[in-house]
Write a structure and sequence with these properties.
single chain, mainly alpha, 3 helices, 2 strands, binds zinc ion
Length: 128
């Protein structure tokens, strides 16, 4: 192929080149390097964002594990799970021979109900 006299689209200088060439060597080189630089920058940016996202998710997971360890979950006990047995075992509903047992179980259930209520209030406050 024969070279022809061309005018660079960027710097407007004349140069000898192929008919399909639109840039002088210097401008072509600058543009190519700039493109490489831009692609490198974009690759770095993408990698940086991916690393930041991984670090964020790692931190989130670690935070949740620490939070769970600091506040062991006490499964909430529904009020009726204590109220119904209380009604069943209450000493007033038992024959005299079971009075001792009925008193002990009732006292235990009342203590349990109180601690469940306190735990429930702490959960609502968001305090440990
Ligand atoms: Zn040029």
């Amino acid at each position: 192929m024969s070279t022809v006299s061309r005018r660079c689209r960027v710097c407007r200088k004349s140069f000898e080149g192929e008919p399909w060439q639109h840039l002088c060597w210097d401008c072509w080189r600058r543009e190519k390097d700039g493109g490489l630089e831009q692609r490198g920058y974009e690759r770095g940016l993408t990698a940086g964002r991916a690393e930041a996202r991984r670090a964020y998710l790692r931190g989130l997971a670690e935070g949740r594990v620490k939070e769970a360890a600091a506040h062991p979950a006490t499964p909430p006990i529904a009020d009726d799970l204590i109220r119904d047995p209380l009604w069943l075992v209450h000493p007033d509903h038992q024959p005299p021979e079971r009075s001792g047992l009925a008193n002990r179980v009732t006292a235990t259930l009342l203590t349990l109900r109180e601690s469940v209520r306190r735990a429930s209030m702490k959960r609502e406050d968001g305090k440990p």
